[in-house]
Task: structure prediction
Amino acid sequence: MTTSLEEPIHGKAYDARLVRRLIPFARPYRRRFAGSIALLLGMFAADLVIPYVIRLGVDGPIADARADGDVGSALRELGGLVAILGAVAAIRLALQLGQLLVMTQVGQSILHDLRLKAFSHLQSLSLSYFDRNPVGRLVTRVTNDIETLNELFTSGVSVVFYDLVKIVGVIVVLLFIEPRLTGVALIGLPILVVVSFAFRNHARHAYREIRTRVSRLNAFLQECFQGMRVVQLFNQERRVLERFDGINAEHRKAHVRAHLNWSLFFPSIDLVSTAILAAVVWYSGLAIVDGEIQFGLFLQFWMMLGYLFDPIRELSEKYNVFQSAMASAERVFGLLDERSEIEAPEKPVPLEAARGAIEFDQVTFGYGEGPDVLRDVSFRIAPGEKIAIVGATGAGKTTIINLLGRYYDVRSGHVRVDGHDVRQLDPRALRRQIGLVLQDVFLFPGDILENIRLGDAGISEERVHEAARLVGADRFIEGLPDGYRSEVRERGATQSVGEKQLIAFARVLTFDPAILVLDEATAHIDPETERLLQRALEKTLTGRTAILIAHRLATIRHADRILVFHHGQLREAGTHEELVEQRGLYHRLHLLQSG
Ligand SMILES: Nc1ncnc2c1ncn2[C@@H]1O[C@H](COP(=O)(O)OP(=O)(O)OP(=O)(O)O)[C@@H](O)[C@H]1O
Ligand SMILES: [Mg+2]
Result:
């Protein structure tokens, strides 16, 4: 998992292919983008005006007053220039504020669109994709990687543009003001550029190191918190703490190294820029003494020169922003390019009111590249029939359900519902016909009501209450502080397993699918809950085809027929009596359970 969070060592700062794909995301905001560029140009104009006004003041009224001693008129003139200076500074501030606001909006909007797209795309991918990709990696794609792109849009593109304009513009103006002085300054400039980029290169490695450490730390914490129960149960606190200590120390070292780099970077940059400034002072000092240039001009030149250093420093920084953005874009587009292995057919066979006939016809299946989990499995279930599936752990029972809902595709053979191969059906239409009550009921953040009707506003509250009443979930729900409006927290950590299953039964009744699938919890359930769940099951079974994956004999009681699986094969089928008579696998299971 950690490797997926690490950044590539080499990476292009500009990749035309990726940029072409990013442009459509920026396109809806092109007007505001252009506006922000205009604001930047306005800021640049203000930057040019300020040193010029200062020069006018120094070489005009101040120099005049020194020559003729008329302080009064000099002050009046100076007052006017100071007012202009204040006004320009205020305008620049307003432009800058506007620019930041516009760019933040644009960046966040693009980010929002990208996240939405990535999320909806992830939802469309088949479960096999989620088997291959750990949760942490997917979370990073949708959060960190997209966040990195934000930097590209908000500060990257426009700032780089601004900086380039500024560097070129300032050099042109400098040449215009005083060509020889500019020549002196420009001799030192390449050194500054080289030093900046050399250090950034170094810093990039240090940052990569930090990010790697941070992601290791995160991954470790995530695992530990999720498994806290196990950690405490097995008294593993000390061992886990030691491992955490190690990871934590690496994290600290990486940070210290990065900061060391920083603390060298700024002084070095300052050293080079001070040397350039010293050369300029030396040269212009002589020129002022000789009367070749005026002091105000020197001041203007000096301030403008200062404008040159920041963009150079910034550009080397942006290089890294571009580089990480390209790496992130690569990963995000990699995700968006991922095609679902489960493709809906072009012209699906309609399945409006399914009868609920199920057929497995010589089905062989395995997960990913793995071995066959089901081998040559064939059986039929008539509409309205109740089937129990039994078998040891890992026999392939849950896999049958995964194939029925076409969460995975078979390797060979056919799975048919109402006589149609599931690959001919629209997966959404198919899944709507299958009501699932799983071992581990998943509750969404939200209230109980929404967890039963799953956000389908077409389902009335009355219908939800009715369903809850029928399965006997109403008792515990109404006992909650806010009844049906009680919030479910942390995937239902505050509900018991039995309560969650009752909610799941209520879901099934509310949606009224043709097929009911129960994948029963192996966990021990107290007799009272067992009675409740059995009653809920009875209510939910009526009028439906059912597959009951059962560990408890009480559930098998409801079945018309029992299928016995062993190592991925259907080994026995028949009623309870018939199977006991056969004295085979089922008989043995039965003996084990009844003691
Ligand atoms: N997503 C998956 N990726 C890879 N292998 C899987 C996956 N799910 C299940 N398997 C493997 O497939 C086999 C059958 O698993 P399955 O979940 O169908 O068993 P089961 O009969 O439901 O067991 P249990 O009674 O414990 O629920 C097991 O060997 C299991 O390790
Ligand atoms: Mg299972």
Remarks:
- The first helix runs from residue 2 to 5.
- The chain has three domains: 16-178, 179-292, 358-594.
